[in-house]
Amino acid sequence: MKINTIETFRAAVPLKKPFKTALRTVETAETIVVKVTCDNGIAGWGEAPPTVVITGDSLSSIESAIHHVLKPMLVNKSLLNYEDIFQGIQSALIGNSSAKAAVDMALYDCLAQQCKLPLYQFLGGHKNEVETDYTVSVNGPEEMGEDAVSYVQQGFNVLKVKVGKDDILTDIERIREIRTRVGSKIKIRLDANQGWKSKDAIHAIRKMEALDLNIELVEQPVKAWDIEGLKQVTDAVDTPIMADESVFSPKQAFEVIKTRSADLINIKLMKSGGIYQAQIINQLAEVCGMECMVGSMIETKIGITAAAHFAASKKNITRFDFDAPLMMAKEIVEGGIHYSGRKITLPSEHGLGIRNVSLIVNKQELTS
């Protein structure tokens, strides 16, 4: 089973509503779609969205890393020697985690198809269904409250609320407005996207605790590099703290776990460089008694399907953030995961279970 070809295609899908965080505003989901074809006819799919403010990866850099570094290294290699291949992908170039992730998930798609298994079973098979939260973009308190009510009415019982923009008092007002509107039974988790300083984060979280706003967790309150500040926040508040941008690699995960700088870790394939290293991060956390969430960037159903297969396969992954395809104005993927409100069912087909991807390439529609 040799790797024959690695192709890339650009895609752009408009969002129903702008996605706003402390770091960026996204109106159109741009992505690089990867197709790996093997000599036995099996084809696997992957994806890498550009997220320059988080991963540093752009559309052009993703394409360059794949075509100039990863593709020459992988073509004509036997995929059955996949341990060497996945280690080679990680050591072939520094950074470029999104490009690595796109190729990694396409190769895992091929491997699971070869074994005639859905990918989640190939990876461990813990369960075939998960439940996603829904993200409330950072806007004015009233608009965020209206959005939160809309998502709850659609059946979502966990809201991931973006904060970290403007001042602390405004963030607190955002959460008070949402909690007042959705009631006490809906879980609210906050994501500051590195938008606070440690003292501000401690003040804000303590204030929300005093107001009994019942926050499930706070994700990445401080800058990614500020592990000491992250630990200060974790030690000073009762609310669980989750590391996100602070953890790309297993080594970074080890540092956070060793120092107990956070209570949980958010694993994203675009940060870890794919499923191979994501499994290592989860295993490190699990043996040390730390649960993980699997999240995502603004990805189409290709990348989210890969992430969901990984997340469903592992017992230690207890939280899921897979709402990005629901934000898009159209769908380019046939097959993959199935949404029923907040519930996501993994496909029973082999591999990722993606049957068809429709893209516009050089003004021609590509269907494969």
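Above is the first protein from milestone M3; the second protein from the same milestone is given next.
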Amino acid sequence: MAEVVIVADEDAAGALVADAIVSLIRAKPDAVLGLATGSTPLASYRALAARIAADAIDVRGVRGFALDEYVGLPAGHPEGYRAVIMREVVEPLGLTPELVRVPNGDPATIEHAGGDYEAAISAAGGVDLQILGIGRTGHIGFNEPGSSLASLTRVKTLTEATRADNARFFDSPDEVPMHCITQGIGTILRARHLVLLAFGEAKAHAVAAAVEGPVSASQPGSAIQLHPHTTVIVDEAAASELVNLDYYRHAWANKPGWQGI
């Protein structure tokens, strides 16, 4: 069972995530972070940037791997995830840009881009802490429903629901790419700690399916149940369909003080 933590809001979640990552970096200065994009993790990145600045944490050796990238966007496109990661994570946190990788969505090299990315993650020793969001369709990364639970980094076709959700970042819905390259579910499950964040009523069904539903490729997020160290941090709205809500509150309230998330 994943550990489920119910918080008041995104800022409270961000404080918990920042605590966990700061503790990791202090123990391992060359820690490897798995980086998600989108609006969900932004409060966590803001909280982490504040902690790094306030506590003078040396992050020059910290490495990072983004979950995914669009295929076919021009180099330097502001909504390409390479640009987003640099703008929202690398610069605010003060990470070393050369140590942060994003899958290569260039169509000219896409046939071997997945294998190249898997090799880079392995060479880095694997991801220590992977930040995840979850889509309304239950996708983690860009692993849409039907994705193999053993899948590795590869090209996927986005659902129309996902393209519609991401259209807010583009001038027109037609500009949202049809394809992406994403870490697979199998790749994600290799990380040593998964931290899944979800906020708002629109995510409630996906959260319940991921945490308490049957493990199924039809609900990609349910793969987190197969991981030995998963933390799910949600607000009240996103937690509203969880059956075992009272137990999750009880377990968190009585968690030993020496245990982090």
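Note on the second protein: Strands lie at 3-7, 32-35, 63-66, 68-70, 100-101, 129-132, 154-157, 179-182, 194-198, 230-235.
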